[in-house]
Write a structure and sequence with these properties.
By secondary structure, the chain is mainly α. It has one domain. Helices cover about 60% and strands about 0% of the residues. It is built from eleven helices and no strands. Helix 5 crosses helix 6 and helix 8 packs across helix 9. The longest helix is centred in the middle third of the chain and has 19 residues. The chain is globular, with a radius of gyration of 16 Å. The N and C termini lie far apart (about 45 Å).
Length: about 190
């Protein structure tokens, strides 16, 4: 799978980590709600440090086997990994358990073995904390940034797979693109009735 530019946090170290650890990338996407995108995607690198393995891949099987209170503590320690650390710790442990059980702990197998874009979308939507939109955005990220492009992936990731747009994290490859995504989201938010 080819890797292209990935800019999801201002930390070069955290961005490089996300490129190397598929579970960290998936976890960042899970956490990307109700907090800034950069904070969500930096959190997995911080979690690796708290697991006493700075920069090493997070083993989903290890994470899912930890006692619930230990996972909550990992997410709650200052700085907290999320605005809602208890709830997100539970979701992260559930995602880790699913990756461990269904993919033998190999997160990338989730997308590398999907025969079609629709099948990959269904797999993503089955993950705890992944609704329709989050699943489509992550599918677009996989296609645009990592080259995971099973047949029909663009259609399955619509509207986030459109080339040359700045709608979501799938389009973030530089500080400039991140700013364009922020502007797009602000415009969408401004259009919603209050």
């Amino acid at each position: 799978m080819k890797t292209v530019e990935l800019y999801l946090t201002p930390s070069e170290e955290a961005n490089d980590y996300l490129k190397r650890d598929p579970f960290a990338l998936l976890l960042g996407m899970l956490l990307d709600q109700q907090i800034p995108m950069e904070r969500a995607f930096a959190a997995p690198f911080l979690l690796s440090q708290r697991l006493a393995a700075p920069g090493q891949p997070i083993d989903p099987c290890t994470l899912s086997s930890l006692p619930e209170e230990e996972v909550i503590e990992l997410f709650s320690a200052r700085p907290a990994l999320h605005r809602f650390p208890r709830a997100m710790a539970a979701k992260a442990a559930a995602v880790a358990a699913m990756i461990c059980g269904e993919y033998a702990g190999d997160t990338a197998a989730l997308w590398l073995t999907a025969p079609t874009g629709d099948a990959l979308l269904a797999r993503l939507k089955a993950l705890p904390g992944f609704g329709e939109e989050k699943a489509r955005i992550f599918l677009a990220l996989l296609g645009k940034r990592l080259g995971a492009t099973p047949p029909g992936w663009r259609e399955a990731a619509t509207p986030f797979a459109e080339p040359g747009t700045f709608q979501s994290v799938a389009d973030s490859d530089s500080p400039g693109s991140l700013e364009k995504i922020r502007l797009y989201k602000a415009a969408i938010k401004a259009q919603k009735p209050k």
